[in-house]
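Here is one chain, start to finish.
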Amino acid sequence: MSSADAVADFGLIGLAVMGQNLILNINDHGFTVCAFNRTVSKVDRFLENEAKGTQVVGAHSIEEFVAKLKRPRKIMLLVKAGDAVDKFIETLLPHLETGDIVIDGGNSHYPDTQRRYESLTAKGILFVGCGVSGGEEGARYGPSLMPGGNPEAWPHLKPIFQAIAAKAPDGAPCCDWVGEGGAGHFVKMVHNGIEYGDMQLISEVYHVLRDGVGLTNDEQGDIFAEWNKGVLDSFLIEITTDILRYKDTDGQPLLEKIRDAAGQKGTGKWTAISALDYGMPVTLIGEAVFARCLSSIKDERVRASKILSGPAATAFTGDRAQLVKDLEQAMYASKIISYAQGFMLMREASQQYKWNLNYGSIALMWRGGCIIRSAFLGDIKNAFDSNRELENLLFDPFFQRAMATAQAGWRGAIGAAVAIGIPTPALGTALSFYDGYRTARLPANMLQAQRDYFGAHTYELEANPGTYIHTNWTGRGGNVHASTYDA
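Its structure:
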């Protein structure tokens, strides 16, 4: 094929629902897309059905696909994360030229993206790992896009990506350059972890409203609808309202028929593992992951419920209207903690990888299109716009005031849940983190003394930080001590 055959502005490999919808979205914005799929018959079916009457073109081989793309070629992979991405890159490489762009739009783990970035940079190919959030509808009408990798690719991708991305209420596209290497997929991973946390917080509040306050699903739906008009305004609160009000064919709430055993695809787990790797206390997302794990051992919990004692979950006898108000404050304060922890994790990874992440821009990217989109993210963007070097969200005056205002209700809601035996792992760990973070002197001095006592691991004195000493606590040990290292 000659250069005259290069008719497409963009190429996309992978014709599952996300891929098809993204192609149609790009087409809607005036760009010609070439579609390819490993099962070539899917290309013809797509062109004859969903893409009929559009400018989308197809290819029946990798050679034809590459030949139809204008230079520098811009190729997006929307295939299953893992080996499939590497295999498609290997298949593409012989047909690419220096300066061509390969984008992985799947849910890849950021170390894989970092590896691919380094490998392809050495070959002259501009690799981009792009987080895509918003599900099928987002892909079709406007996702949140989080691209990172080789910065030389961004000027070529920016006109397309910012055109197809969701728009925030002020019209800003929910897409901007994140940073080099695996930064885009790291930010998407943290987004997914925060999503786990938000969903768990909502579930815990629903549990207290259902079993503690004794409200019907419709009554809860009205409460969530009201909350969605205030500081909790968000996509997840909105869909929770719809879920609570939805009736099955027999007129009963469908929600109460769903088995309480949660699934997970691993992205929340990745966030929790990364938090441990980087030594960051991202406790709320960790608890959200563990809560799903606990839910999955359903049969064991049923057996335990018959033999383990505790207060009845319907024993709340206080002011129910006040508890409902307290729960709103508890969810808001806990949500602030979750995001503060997520940005702590991104800050640490950014320092280690020298990504120079723009946190205000990340908050903007999450304001529309994605699952965690909420009005609240505008406040986060404002915080980082006011101070790009902001050490922690909790240091921002807006969030300091928010935490002060919410605190009494937050503590009251958790106290009520504890008293009646309803588990609130995410709400509770958020408050524990907040209290720990605002405590100038934690009991870790005891931990250090214990470590030195049984393992000669040494400790620092308040009067002389940075100098490690060992004490012979029993008089029987020697003066030899273990070396100091960070796990």
